Amino acid sequence: MWRFEEITKTKKQISWVFISAFGLNENEYSLDIISKSLILDILF
Asked: What tens-digit pLDDT sequence spans the chain (44 residues)?
């Protein structure tokens, strides 16, 4: 994420979003990295 901010020189907030058919198993690593998790069911 820091590399993207560095290259684009954006001042806007950036979030990692995980889109999956089955969801995300929440653990200490996923909670640190992923801001939002979406399941495909809500898109269709």
From this structure: 889 999 999 999 888 888 888 888 888 887 788 888 888 887 77
What's the pTM? 0.58
Question: Does 43 map to a domain?
Answer: yes
3-state class of 39 per DSSP?
strand
Helix (H, G, I), strand (E, B) or coil at 44: coil
With respect to residue 42, please indicate whether it lies within any of the assigned structural domains: yes
42 Ramachandran zone, left/alpha/beta (phi>0; psi -120 to 50): alpha
